[in-house]
Write a structure and sequence with these properties.
Blueprint: E1 2-6, H1 10-21, E2 25-29, E3 45-46, H2 53-72, E4 83-87, H3 90-100, H4 105-108, E5 110-113, H5 115-121, E6 131-135, E7 139-140, H6 143-155, E8 160-163, E9 168-171, E10 175-178, E11 183-185, E12 188-191, H7 199-205, E13 210-220, E14 230-233, H8 246-254, H9 259-263, E15 269-272, E16 278-281, H10 296-310, E17 317-328, E18 336-341, E19 344-348, H11 354-369
Parallel strand pairs: 1-2, 1-12, 2-8, 4-14, 12-19
Antiparallel strand pairs: 3-7, 4-6, 5-6, 9-10, 10-11, 13-16, 13-17, 14-15, 15-16, 18-19
Helix pairs in contact: 1-6, 1-11, 2-11, 3-8
Amino acid sequence: MRVAIVGGGILGTAHALEAIDRGHEVVQFEREAEARGATVRNFGLVWVSGRSRSELAAALRARELWERLGAQIPGIGFRPAGSLTLLRTPGEAAVAEEVTSRGDAELRGFTLLEPERVRALNPALRGKYLAGLHCSRDAAVESRQTLPAMRWHMAASRRYRFHACTEVRSVDATAVIDDRGRRYDADLVLICAGAAHGGLVREIAGELPVRRVRLQMMQTEPLDEELTTAIADGDSFRYYPGFAGPALDHLRRSESQDDTANEHRMQLLCVQRLHGGLTIGDTHEYDEPFPFDVSEAPYSYLVEIVEQFLGRALPPIRQRWAGVYSQCVDPDQVVCRTSPDDAVWVITGPGGRGMTLAPAIAEQTADLVGL
């Protein structure tokens, strides 16, 4: 089968790889020279820990697939580092105690650790915290290396072509036509346009039940020691549905976020890149139009929190950026798939879960459409 994929981000590329692995021919289009959206503006985290019960199976399957891909494609930089959510208040500790007592705690790899055991697992964390929630199932990939590495791997099949700087202008059940008028015959078209909900996507599929979310992040110069796990703070409990329950309800009622964290809907996530620098974030903005600039207060707040956990000053900040991702309006919906025409599918909306879930979403799509 000839498969055309519109969009060069992780969702499109995962679908391309799934089609290649199933023996099909793939042509993929990216309007930029290289994907520049949410795929490369994230942490590279394969984040199992906070997933809702309805998406836990998909997250675990994606984790399995990422590990397999990491063995096949070393350039992805897969590492099963796990994560530590560092707890600063009794209310946060109560949430961690509750989730480690649930029936799915073993599936998620949850263990609640005292500070001494946290430091034994991640010696760089010499600062202040009450305890740490360890998730052994979390992992990481190198978000800015993953796409080129996957494309290089697919090119070796001789059944894959990648067209950069190519914008698709029209699609039907038999072909794709680009902005130079070139026609590419196809038996199946998958449109994975990320947070670009207008233009071609709106023309083909109309208004979708998705919204856009903006976040701010930063990257430090290399840290002179290894951060052996990803880290998060207890505010992340407020944003991940896997932590919902009576203890979290009590936390929300009894413990307010810091004013800056509350204003910018913040949580701390932090992961060390292979080059040694730390990727740190993030904020959440939901009301468009989004500002074109970034705010300094969240960056200062995040630096302070990481330094508290490390017990030392961070290296200088090298880069700051904002990103936008696509999220399903229904919180229980993992991804939005719609087929506006025979053999044409639009796939979007994993909502900050794209890097984690992309391989599993692609596998599900392939089964659904009969690849």
